[in-house]
Amino acid sequence: MEFLSQMWSLLGLLTILQNVLPTQLLSLLHSLWQSLQDSLTPYSYFDVPEFLGSAAVEPNALYRHRSSRARRLHTNAASPRGAATWSSVPFCHPSTFDTIALDPDLKARLLADLTAFADGREFYRRTGRPWKRGYLLHGPPGSGKSSLIAAMANHLRYDVFDLELTRVATNADLRALLIQTTNRSLIVIEDIDCSLHLTGDRGLASKRRNKRRRLHATSSDDSSDSDSDGGDNHRARVTLSGLLNFTDGLWSCCGEERIIVFTTNHVDGIDPALLRPGRMDVHVRLGACGAHAMRELVDRYVGVEDHEMLDAAEGCIRDGAEMTPAEVGEVLLRNRDDPDAAVTELAVELKARQSAADELQWEDSAAELSDESPRKKGRKGLGWEGKVRILGRLRSLTKSESGRRGV
Fold it and tell me: Span of the secretion signal (predicted)?
């Protein structure tokens, strides 16, 4: 009874306030209450007079916020019935354009291109082009290709479909997987040079088939072996033609706002037909870590912006020393609790690589004069003793440079 009396008292108080308070204040309180509801539930409720006051729901800002963040990473797999299908997990990669180490000009061009693509619905309709775009990311291992893909997905808030070509049986399965992808997605094929034979020799498969047929006609014993060996060939595996249709054929237009990304360590090993504009529109070369990217990584990992050994490391990069962003990050990660040691080890490693590059260049020049190839001889990298000597040289160089500056 006490609870009921308190409830009736509260209702009475609300009735009095509704009659006493001005209309403007009531509307303000109502809007505040509505915003509080929207912050607690992803749906907004409202009345529908046409249905005699029935309540309906619509997604609000919280729903759109949750939907934009609830993105998925898909990978292809065979179902129990053998059909090609996708399975997915939440996509939570932390990489963004603020965290990856890229040349500032390259980063600006990529961001501008991605933004223009995402806002280009009317442009693509007006020009009669499918609303899709192709990116080719190529460079040595550790240059940041996968991190860049994650940054692109996070920037555009797209789902990611990671397509493993070696698990696709036929061109028909490849087409079925394409149809199952959603709009606003990145379709990624990593290490495409290792997934298919895309070297441009399109007649190689037919030559192998003709050779098997000749062997089949000459010997019955060889015939049985040929049948067993040729079983894979009779199953129409994914071909270059199927991949070309995947990227630029009629079936590639079955959705909107899609980006197809290929990655490779060796771009020369891919058929040029796959790389032309319309299939791979943007080619991004990711190589060794530049001076700006190196300083950005050092600042992010160990919080160092100015250091004498950092200047020495930058000089080594400008003189030809090369380290990928992954290698630089590993040195900094090992020494993240000691910034001085991190920058010093990085400078020593870069100086060692510069010395090795200079030695290689000198040997190549000598080989041209003597017509002897030094690559026939085994080379050994600099050991720790050599790196200690290099560290001593770096310190003496930085001290002499400081003396000339009057520091």
Answer: 1-22
Residue with tokens 């060794």: 288
Whole-Å CA distances, 280 to 11, 208, 263: 66, 30, 11
352 is written with which tokens? 């060692």
323: left (phi over 0), alpha (psi -120 to 50) or beta: beta
Q: What Cα–Cα distance (Å) separates residue 357 from each residue in 35, 69, 322, 343, 350? A: 63, 46, 9, 21, 10
The domain tally of the chain equals 2
**What count of other Cβ atoms lies within 10 Å of the Cβ of residue 229?**
12
Give the structural domain span for 386: 291-405
The verdict on 298 and 366 lying in the same domain is yes
Residue scoring higher pLDDT (205 or 63)? 63
pLDDT at 361: 66
Instruction: Provide mean pLDDT across the span 362-368.
Output: 61
Length of the chain: 407
| pLDDT averaged over every residue in the chain | 77
Give residue 131's pLDDT.
Answer: 93
Buried b (16+ CB within 10 A) or exposed e, 158-184: bbbbbbebeebeebebbbbbbeebeee
Radius of gyration of the chain measured on its C-alpha atoms: 31
CATH number of the structural domain spanning residue 255: 3.40.50.300
- Going by C-alpha positions, the residue among 237, 262, 246 that lies closest to residue 166 is 237
State percent of the chain over pLDDT 90. 41
- Of 285, 300, 321, which residue sits at a domain end? 285
Planar angle of CA 189, 155, 281, nearest 5 degrees:
45
**Domain shared by 303 and 332, yes or no:** yes
Read off the tokens for 195: 């997934």
Assessment of whether the complete model's pTM goes beyond 0.90: no
SS3 readout for 322-374: CCCHHHHHHHHHHCCCCHHHHHHHHHHHHHHHHHHHHHHHHHHHHHHHHCCCH
Side-chain-facing half-sphere of 290: CA atoms under 13 Å = 12
For the stretch 257-274, pLDDT in tens is 999 999 999 998 888 888
Q: Which of 197, 106, 89, 208 is nearest to 148 (CA)?
A: 106
Residues 247 and 297 in one domain: no
pLDDT at 373 over 60: no
Q: Distance between CA 166 and CA 174 in Å, rounded?
A: 11
Among 165, 323, 193, smallest CA distance to 265 is for 193
